[in-house]
Amino acid sequence: MNETKPEKQIDYVELPMSDLNATKAFYQAVFGWRFEDYGPGYISFFDGRVGGGFTTETQPPASGILLVIYTRDLSALQKAIRDAGGNIVKDTFSFPGGRRFHFTDPNGNELAAWSDV
After folding, report:
1. The pLDDT of residue 97
2. Residue 6: inside a domain, yes or no?
3. Residue 53 in contact with residue 45, Cβ under 8 Å?
4. Is residue 63 part of a domain?
5. Average pLDDT rounded to a whole number, residues 5-13
6. Which pTM was predicted?
7. Contact yes or no for 37/24 (Cβ under 8 A)
8. Measuring CA to CA, how many Å separate 108 from each of 21, 24, 70?
9. Residues 6+ away with beta carbon under 8 Å from 83
10. In a domain, 1, yes or no
11. Domain extent at residue 65
12. Per the structure, how many domains does the chain have?
């Protein structure tokens, strides 16, 4: 038993991908994530706090779990996403506690970004 790991907290997330190089380029350019290759169909990432992976073994779902990423500057992040080949699929909207928008990565995975400022 590893007592240094937080108990009952999200430890790893896995997303589908179709293009390893496009996936790495997008998330590196937009978020600065680091990657480790584990063969032609799997890469792991680390964002500085949470780790995860991308796999070619599953296809992006039509809908499913929504990963939400915090940012202080929604406009700058939207520009970075577009510049890296992503698409804004739901424009910025307000909700109690802040604002957010939704985007897709080069694989069609939908994510969101939010800010409280």
Report:
1. 86
2. no
3. yes
4. yes
5. 69
6. 0.79
7. no
8. 15, 14, 20
9. 29
10. no
11. 12-115
12. 1
